[in-house]
Amino acid sequence: MHRVGSAGNNTNSNRPRKEKRLTYVLNDTADTKHCAGINCLALLKSSTSDGSDYLFTGSRDGTLKRWALGENTATCSATFESHVDWVNDTVIAGDNALVSCSSDTTLKMWNCLSDGPCTRTFSQHSDYVTCLAAAEKNANVVASGGLGGEVFVWDIEAAVTPVSKSSGVVENDCSNGINGSTNSLQISSLQTISSSNSIITHTTQCHGYVPIAAKGHKESVYALAMNDSGSLLVSGGTEKVVRVWDPRTGSKNMKLKGHTDNIRALLLDSTGRYCLSGSSDSMIRLWDLGQQRCVHSYAVHTDSVWALASTPTFSHVYSGGRDLSLYLTDLTTRESLLLCTKEQPILQLALHDDSIWVATTDSSVSRWPAEGRNPQNVFQRGGSFLAGNLSFSRARVSLEGSTPAPVYKESNFTIPGTPAIAQHEILNNRRHVLTKDAAGSVKLWEITKGVVIEDYGQVSFDEKKEELFEMVSIPAWFTVDTRLGSLSVHLDTPQCFAAEMYSADLNISGKPEDDKVNLARETLKGLLAHWLSKRRERHGSQASANGDILSGKDMAARSSAHSRIEVDGNAENDSMVYPPFEFSTVSPPSIITEGSQGGPWRKKITELDATEDEKDFPSWVLDCVLNNRLPPREHAKCSFYLHPCEGSAVQILTQGKLSAPRILRMHKVVNYVIEKLVLDKPIDSVSTDGTYAPGLGGQSQSGSKPWQKLRPSIEILCNNQVLSPDMSLATVRAYVIILTSGTRLAFCWKSHALAKCWDLYSSGVACHDRKCPRDPCIYGKMIGFRSRGIL
User: Fold this and answer.
1) What is residue 754's predicted lDDT score, i.e. its pLDDT?
2) Which residues pair with 421 in a beta bridge?
3) Which of 382, 502, 510, 628 has the most beta carbons within 10 angstroms of its beta carbon?
4) What is the DSSP letter of 279?
5) pLDDT of res. 575
6) Exposed, middle or buried, 588 (CB in 10 Å: 0-12/13-18/19+)?
7) What is the pTM of this model?
8) Which helix (H) or strand (E) holds 671?
């Protein structure tokens, strides 16, 4: 499974340290829609009659959104962005505290009524945090559970009190949206619950808050629920049992058995006497905690039950899951009714007066009629059935074709989302990525600008991929995934600095056409252009000019650690961003990375405020954009042999192996051949035996020399295949011939007449064409042949 966190290796100090990566997440729409499945919902009802209710949605795209609800409207009034992986659950604690948990192993706190960033980050869990529970009448208590089997109970009021930093729990102040702070928490002991229900107090070495740990789960926890007063907590997961805890002490009260598969959803009534559980065994069970037994079981679904929501009186339950169906069940009479069916599995439910919000693996959220105040009104429509006691009874009914018809065919309102990207392909030019979303739309992205450059609509993805194929070879300098529903582009050092292109190929004006442009370096400059601008404003022109961001001691230490880093002499040491690397400010990408302190963080590039430094960015990123330093790049050149075609009278130019940049085009090789053939004295810059020949890859001179007009008159072959003048050495090695000891290239005249002219000239015989110009150099005679149409 995808893991997000520090890339450092702390288990073996003898291994080389792996550098932190930088990721940027692309978005081609305004920041008012989710672009992946909705994992969680939370409702905040207005305390005044004329105020708006708010719906909070947490998505697999890593963000939360706040929606101001009207009668038939929902306006996105805020986006909360800090998690670096899926948001799995969210709850409202008190009047204005929004708490979220994520697959990035953290919990985060937000002021749900403001547009501000994350206020606190807690990193106590060892694995994905999957679920949360809050006490409605006790605003301070929130519980969290995860795949590591941990269940923690947090005192929110104590957690937000800033005191000295604790080593017992990682807590970060992210008031600027970035983890890393000197503020911490207030309690100094961790209460660990052993399997014998005894409480063992561990005092941490430093003062700071740590949550209560309810220990007992040996496997993953998927569901939590708490009663209104916060005096009772229930948990469930892959162990197929419901565990009951006292969250005030962490002691385990009881264990309830009955389910035959993972427990995925839990509910407690306000008093804490009754508990509802939904399981992957397709069953819903009602437990009496006072009697410590299951009093009813409901075979309603034909597949896993993933979401439960009850009426305020706990008389009826709404349930949804993997079978795409939403059911309403009377817990007393066992009467059940199919309210609606969806196109995707149902992940979460939120009852809102007489409606219910339904979240699925789709990026949209829909509202359906529910009659939450008086659910018996729905049953008067007819079509109900009696829920069985065994799961196979409901499955048998489904197989017999007697599945009930849904009461409602369409939702009464939908908050639309952007279809998630379901398929992608990195094209050979290593600048474009072809994608196909869940709606079937195929788009072409330019990742060095973060924009869609072509929307092909609903066409065949495979056919479009073949159509866009180019016979070019550029090193793989980035990787891509679509876990967050959009393109996440990952840059890892030193691999990301392997790709270069000529400025002419990028259509960059104002630079010599043969200047080499490092794609990763220019992409980083484009991503951090806003940050660099803010930094210049913050530190002044002098700090901007010398690029120093560290103290002398820190800089010396880092220079020692990066002794193999080399300065990129071909790139200007400035922050100028060229057009092919200008990122959109309308739909700006978000950066995900981490520095020397804190954990991973996420922020839009337009929201970077220059307070970020080496504690927040990987050192190699700052070395690149500020100090113009790049790591060594391996295998940046290609070696090859160059000789005349078989049977040609042209002399052998060199006996040794030539070496040139792998991006060198064949027309440069042609120029080199003509220089060697035509000029009386070979150029001094040519070298053999594996050393670089600047004549093959040097800067172009201003204006064209006369002999350069002969370039189309010579062909370069490999394996008897004529190579295109625009083909690079790397492309030849990738598609024409693959050799480890060097590619063998041959050159020859393009026509028989030109070859004969060369033979006469090299033998000292005058040209027989009296009208041919008598220039002392062979290129004059060749031009004469060409002008008369002989060639």
Assistant:
1) 52
2) 437
3) 502
4) E
5) 59
6) buried
7) 0.82
8) helix 666-678
223-244 confidence digits (pLDDT tens): 999 999 999 999 999 999 999 9
pLDDT at 708: 45
Q: Strands, DSSP E only, in 289-389?
A: 293-298, 305-310, 316-321, 325-330, 335-341, 346-352, 355-360, 365-369, 385-386
CA angle 71, 77, 78 (to 5 degrees): 140
User: Peptide bond preceding 494: is omega within 30 degrees of 0, i.e. cis?
Assistant: yes
* Count of CB atoms situated within 10 Å of the CB of 564: 8
Length of the chain: 791
β-partners of residue 143 are: 133, 153
Residue 296: name the closest of 260, 333, 327 by CA.
Answer: 333
Reduce the DSSP state of residue 289 to 3 states and report it.
Answer: coil
Q: Rounded to 5 degrees, what are φ and ψ at 29?
A: -130, 170
Report the pLDDT value the prediction gives residue 573, as an integer from 0 to 100: 44
Q: Structure tokens of 474? A: 């550029």
Which candidate, 294, 216, 304, 312, places its Cα nearest to that of 265?
Answer: 304
CA distance 633 to 670: 27
Q: What is the reported pLDDT for 138?
A: 84
Task: Please give the torsion angle defined by the CA atoms of residues 407, 413, 417 and 421, in that order, rounded to the nearest 10 degrees.
Answer: 20
| DSSP 8-class letter at 735 | I
User: What gap in Å lies between CA 761 and CA 683, rounded to an integer?
Assistant: 21
Q: How far apart are the first and last CA of the chain?
A: 63
Roughly what angle, to the nearest 10 degrees, separates helices 619-627 and 519-527? Answer: 90
Which residues of the chain have a pLDDT value below 70? 1-17, 49-50, 160-207, 391-402, 540-575, 634-635, 648-651, 653-655, 677-712, 737-743, 749-791
pLDDT tens per residue, range 463-520: 999 999 999 999 999 999 999 999 999 999 999 999 999 888 888 888 888 888 999 9
In the chain, the amino acid numbered 173 is D
Distance CA 704, CA 679 (A): 15
Q: How far apart are CA 107 and CA 300, in angstroms?
A: 34
Contact 568, 628 (CB under 8 A): yes
Closest CA to 281 of 313, 303, 307: 303
